[in-house]
Amino acid sequence: MKEYNVRRHYETKHQSYASYTGAERAQKFKQMAASLQAQQQFFFRANKIQENATAASYEVAQLIAQHGKPFSDGDFIKQCLIKVTEVMCPEKVQDFNDVSLSRKTVVRRIEDLSANLKLQLREKACAFDFYSIACDESTDATDTAQLLIFLRGVDDNFCCTEELLDMMSLKGTTTGANIFDAVSEAVEKMGLKWDKLCGVTTDGAPAMTGERKGMASMVCVKVKESGGEAVRMHCIIHQEALCAKTVQLGDVMNTVVKTVNIIRARGLYHREFQAFLSDVDAEYGDVLYHSDVRWLSRGSLLQRFYSLRSEIDKFLKVKGRPLHKLSDPLWLADLAFLVDLTHHLNTLNKNLQGKEQLVSHLYAHMKAFCVKLRLFETQLRSFNAAHFPRCLKSSLLFQRQTFLLKRRNMLL
Q: Which residues lie below 8 Å from residue 220, measured CB to CB, with a gap of 6+?
């Protein structure tokens, strides 16, 4: 505006303000500026509340997705929030009512979050100097083969990125060619270049590692055709799980699994067993199932079975199906040794898991465990079971020399 126009407007319309001088004029100016700001913030405040409601909706949707909860749980969460607000701060009830958490809204929020994560990963992937992938294929509860593809990439600043690249559902057969097609689709969809692929890690299945028709072989050929070179590797965690299966105590494991199935396979037996454990104030309230797919479940099953061995023995005797091996001290010693050994193996497996671990770290864990095995061998040779605490409780441990010799030979 031109100065003389502003001056004329002030002198003709606001001449009364000329009477304010000094500190009084400054105070009046502050009051008018605060009043103007309050008027301007009236609409911004409503807009801010709506933005906060939308942000809260995204946060809740992210938690629902992370914990694998049904999308319909959003309505239940909103009801809980409103009830808490009515008690804690009733004046904020309307603000929480504005948070949309319906099933369809939660679905849209999760889809938006997924699309944003893929966009961020695509932007990072463009800066990768080299990257590697790890693939694992398994069947879910609906008998659908699911292929998980993990990505690790490094840029020119040596910043590593580890993310789930994609999860592909394989329809029909799961041959090496089918898996390779799925991997190719995921890699190309993310905009990754084949010549920058430097490694592919698999679980060691024939469809993955076949010399000619395996997925890893096809990936290496594809990379070579693009001008790069990729290395095939067998997942070290899968190798550890395979080695753990060679423990020669199948008779103990089979007996434990069979006993657990007797208790849990029948609904009546299971309910009566849980009630029995509650009556005797047992350490645990139930026994656990074992699944070969879940590697750590074997150790958990054995530890729970060993802790409840006396209760299981009493319950089976009451039911007229006694397990005589629970009265055999040597078999119990075998069970105790297997419980302690699987505990050490599970600890190693957990150390191998997790993000941001280099192969050198995993190799160090494996070498350290090999040193532990030699220590166990030396101690068992001198009848020292310090690292097998449950074996120490066996009354036959130091009476039967053949027991520890058998355990030492197993470690060898």
A: 200, 230, 232
Domain residues for 100?
A: 26-120
Backbone φ and ψ for 191, nearest 5 degrees, come out as: 80, 25
Alpha helices in 266-400 (DSSP H): 267-279, 297-307, 309-318, 329-352, 359-381, 389-392
Report the chain's terminal Cα–Cα distance, integer Å.
Answer: 93
Backbone angles phi, psi at 293, to 5 degrees: -70, -35
Residue 211 within any structural domain of the chain:
yes
Inter-residue contact 193 to 156 (CB < 8 Å): no
Q: Is residue 150 part of a domain?
A: yes
| pLDDT band at 269; cut points 50, 70, 90 | confident
Comparing C-alpha atoms, which of 116, 110, 115, 111 is closest to residue 61?
A: 110
pLDDT attached to residue 355: 81
Number of domains in the chain: 3
**What CA–CA distance (Å, rounded) separates 175 from 213?**
8
The predicted model scores a pTM of 0.70
Q: How many CB atoms lie within 10 A of CB 133?
A: 23
Pairing of strands 160-170, 197-202: unpaired
